[in-house]
Structures are given as C-alpha cells and as structure tokens.
User: Fold Cysteine synthase from Lutimonas vermicola.
Amino acid sequence: MKTKRILDLIGNTPLVESSRLIEKKGVRILMKLEGNNPGGSVKDRPAMNMIKSALERNEIDQNSRLIEATSGNTGIALAMIAGIYKLNMELVMPENSTRERVQTMRAYGAQVTLTPAGNGIEGSRDYAEMKVAKEGFVMLNQFANPDNWKAHYKTTGPEIWRDTDQSVTHFVSAMGTTGTIMGVSTYLKEMNPDIQIIGAQPTDNSKIPGIRKWPEEYLPKIFNRSKVDRIIEVSEEEARAMSIRLAKEEGVFAGMSSGGSVTTALKIANEIEKGVIVCIICDRGDRYLSSDLFD
Assistant:
C-alpha cells in the first residue's frame, strides 16, 4: 500500500483555465490553485522550506523558541509544520485579523499574540524583532530569509513551466513578502528570459490582505526589483469584486489577494493579442467568512 504523509501533499497544485473571465482568441488565463495545499495557501511552500532548511543547518531544534510576524497564511503554514516537527512557535499578527486565521493557528498548536490593529503588520514585525533581541527568540524571518523565495524556485516555478508545456508568456502574482514572485521569476527567466513577470500592488489607501506596498524601511530584504518586469496597482474595490466573480462565475473560492492577482491578469489579457497568463490563487475563501468580503 502506497501512502503519503501530510507534508508530501505540499505543492503540485492544479492549474485551471478561466472559462468566463475572458473570451479572446489566442489569450488564456490559467489560475494556480494554491488553496489546495494542506494548510490552505501558497505559504505552505516557504514555511516548509524555511523550517526544514533551518533544521538541516542545525540553526533550530526542539528547544528553540520560534517567533514570526504574519498577516495570516504564513502563520497558519508555520503552525501546521512546526506542530508536526514538535517545534515551539509563537505567531504575531494584528488584532483585526480574521477569527478563522487566529483559531486555525491555535488549532495547530501555536501561541498567537495579537498586536494593535492601528500598527498593522509593521507593528507585529517590530514586536517579533524585539522578542528576538531581548528574550532569545529565533525568527525564521520570511521577509529576509532566502529559503522563502527558494521554495518557489524549487517548486512553483518548475510546476508552472511543466504544466503549461513550456508555453507560459506572463506570470502574475500578488506581492506581500514577495517570495512567490522572486522565486518563480528566477526560475522562469532561466527557462525563457522573454517571459513577463508582473506584480500586483494595492493602490494608495487600499487594504488588501496579503498584498502590500511597503514603506521603504519595511521593504522585504528578499525583494529584487530587477526580477519584476512590471508592477500594476489594484484597488480594494477591484480586488473585492473579482473575488466575488471568481466564486460565482468560475467556482474558485479565494481571498482578496487572489482577486487582486486575477484582476491584474485580466488587465494584461486585455492588452495582448496572444499569450498564456498564469496567476496565483493564493488561498481559500473560507479563511475570510467572518470578514465582510462576501457579504
């Protein structure tokens, strides 16, 4: 009998074609369903790579006190994987994070600390860094850890290249920690330098969970602007509307960052005459049911 462990199910997520969003001969939009990962989001990939690599390098062990700031999905992935490896994990996030996210992290066994909503994820990052500096905690630091983007270089990029039969012309990703777009860009550009890499960022004053326009002092250290051909801004209204359309028209139940990613892909599709556009569906919509996203 051939069986798998839960962590063996991370990656190799489906790539499905949009059937309703665009009807333009020669242009295809393909959505990579990262919600199919066992932890429910694209963040399972970097969380696994960061923990496994740190264990292999003997940088952490079961006596380490791990801490990480998160807006949600990375925290859930880290909580799940830390529990399997019997690691102590404290996750720090803004207090206005959805109940589902907080409860899921606690269900996996992590300690969750909530910081003031007004300080945003930046406040959570400051709190975690203080605990590292003063109390001996260890941070995997998704914002600066190359094992974040390398997870996508090793898995997400090759999967897209394989599953499109090497025909992908454009890759679109929401930009948060930027690990996904950095890793996929690095791989796809090695395969074909002409592939266009497009990042989605929120417009000023738009709040889209999972997508950020970082102040310079908080810009992720793993981010390399030269690996992104174009950045397109998406409004909160556009991202919300697309999340609802995805559920109603495509049967793809996902969060607002996915709405931002697909909105961006559709903008590209309307500009070009021929191409295969792959965009990331970051997570599942059930993570947002206590918010007003689907009201």
